[in-house]
Amino acid sequence: MSKKSFRQAINEALRQEMRRDPTVILMGEDVAGGRGGSAGTADAWGGVLGVTKGLYEEFGETRVLDTPITEASYIGAAAGAAVTGLRPVAELMFVDFVGCCLDQIMNQAAKFRYMFGGKARTPLVIRAMYGAGFNAAAQHSQALYPLFTHIPGLKVVIPSSPYEAKGLLISAIRDDDPVIFLENKVMYDVEEDVPDEPYAIPLGEANLTREGDDVTIVAFGRMVGMANEAADRLAKKGISCTVIDPRTTSPLDSETILECVADTGRLVIVDESSPRCNMATDIAALVAEEAFDALRAPIRRVVPPHTPVPFATVLETLYMPSVEKIEAAVTATMNHRVTEKV
Amino acid sequence: MQIARETLLRSYRAMRTIRMFEERLHVEFATGEIPGFVHLYCGEEASAVGVCANLTDNDTIASTHRGHGHCIAKGVEVAGMMAEIYGRSTGVCRGKGGSMHIADLACGMLGANGIVGGGPPLICGAALSHKTLRDGGVAVAFYGDGASNEGTTLESLNLASVWQLPAVFVVEDNGYGEATAASFACAGTQKARAAGFGMPYIECDGSDYFAVHEAAGEAIAHARAGKGPVMLHVHLQRWYGHFEGDAMTYRAPNEVAEAKRDHDCLKLFRERVTQAGLFEDSVLDEVDAAVTDEIEAAVMQAKDDPLPQSADLLADVYVRY
């Protein structure tokens, strides 16, 4: 066990799975980095933010494949390789680029197993960066997990910490179905203790990062840390929160969410994706349908406004959910008084 | 070029099977019993069969909307295909795929594809698997002149060249992408496109089984030898509309009649082998009779087979909600 960054945890998961299984390969733009350049690959990039650094050196060009900047062909190739015997981990870089290759994910990889009558397995992982907070503006900051969650046939993973990232990525690579693995780009340097040995966290099992009596907070990815910080502050005011990290939006551990709401009677959902048809609306609908009687206050959603992500820091900060906004939402739900019917 | 007698007979049977399978579908579709869309391959049989005669179960193909011919040529079972098109639980894809999505990975058939240009990227992946696993296989993408304009196809030509994949890109050029002519929609030439990606280019007459067999043999041997991808441009004729029900108002009245008269690959095959003394007409007549029986049986069986049950709706769903 040692302190590892989110970036190192992901790198370690890839390295350990590649050592364990020779059919695991990586592909993507600059995942080796420097192919064909005048300086060679000795100091290969390992992707734009260095997540796959060192893997080309260890596994070579047959396992770590640089691609041209052609998302449709290589994400499609990853799907084709997955149904014919390899276990590709393809890096899409910024998830915003999925517009260039959505067909290969949505109509091909996601559909094979069902559409072919159960005769295909597509052990594919697509890694991509998501999220605002980097001043990367509208085309490099989206949190598109609801888009993937909407498509039957995809598993969608959003790790909330280095420990979670390693265990969930190992599960994703070992999974026989297509998995979208979304890494918050602001979190790469976040550190915590991560075991050195490989371990797998099952997909579809939520993690309760704390348990309380008053309010259930469901948060995704980077929002989990914010929710915990808000819960710490609220505890000092005598409000105790349960914080749920679902870990995966598809499958979604709805049982855990419903059980916690049944206990607390109040729900706040923190989701940094665009507010229409996102995870917050989805979970709100689930709870309204399945646990209406348990609710003691309206469900509250902490979400961005329905706008592209702005560039300027001041605007981006306004755009994002924050610890303060979560705290305010929890306080508001606590203060709600149900009007008695006359 | 010498082609084994056994191969010739098997190829004739495959071409005849495609022809009869499709002509029967043409009739059956008109009765309204077949759900969904059906895109017929009639007239193009020598292309699928000429290419696939050079392949084994270890090789992989990806197909198009017009996939029945490729499926049959690659060895997918005819009765299962018919049942699939009728939406029966006994279908190759258990009634979940239909005409546009027939796949059978056990014989290297990666699927027809409902998306124009969907196949070429997948074939890059299959070729990468063959190369990485060193199993000696090659991967073949069949796509039309319409799909040749899709970015996915052009990106795949580039990727296959960059990675030196054992891949063959077969452009089945019937002159129409849906209802729009290739002469209008395809800028430049396929040959120039191949050259643009540093890829060898071979073209052939798709109504001539022997020409296709030879050209595909050369292309596939090149890819199999690890020399990288090849483009094979097959010129052919589509006898029916883009989909069943298409009145083909965009084609001159005599165009199909001339195609049937002058470019019927089955007629040309039969003339060639009987004139060369390779087969008596009676041998080929026997094949025709056997295929007639097989298609009849497949249709009767499909109509008789059970529909999927309600429990099948959620079979093979792996993400619970």
Automatic annotation (TrEMBL), chain A:
Parts of the chain that traverse the membrane: none
Pfam family name, one: Transket_pyr
Keywords recorded for this protein, A-Z: Oxidoreductase
GO molecular function: oxidoreductase activity
Every Transketolase-like pyrimidine-binding domain range: 4-190
Hydrolase among keywords: no
Source domain of life: Bacteria
The keyword Disulfide bond is assigned to this record: no
Protein name: Alpha-ketoacid dehydrogenase subunit beta
Species of origin: Komagataeibacter xylinus (Gluconacetobacter xylinus)
From TrEMBL, chain B:
Coiled coil: none
CDD domains, per the entry: TPP_E1_PDC_ADC_BCADC
Gene3D superfamilies per the UniProt record, alphabetical: 3.40.50.970
Highest taxon of source: Bacteria
Swiss-Prot/TrEMBL GO biological process terms: pyruvate decarboxylation to acetyl-CoA
Dehydrogenase E1 component domain residues: 14-309
Catalytic reactions on record: N(6)-[(R)-lipoyl]-L-lysyl-[protein] + pyruvate + H(+) = N(6)-[(R)-S(8)-acetyldihydrolipoyl]-L-lysyl-[protein] + CO2
Function: The pyruvate dehydrogenase complex catalyzes the overall conversion of pyruvate to acetyl-CoA and CO(2). It contains multiple copies of three enzymatic components: pyruvate dehydrogenase (E1), dihydrolipoamide acetyltransferase (E2) and lipoamide dehydrogenase (E3).
Protein name: Thiamine pyrophosphate-dependent dehydrogenase E1 component subunit alpha
Organism: Komagataeibacter xylinus (Gluconacetobacter xylinus)
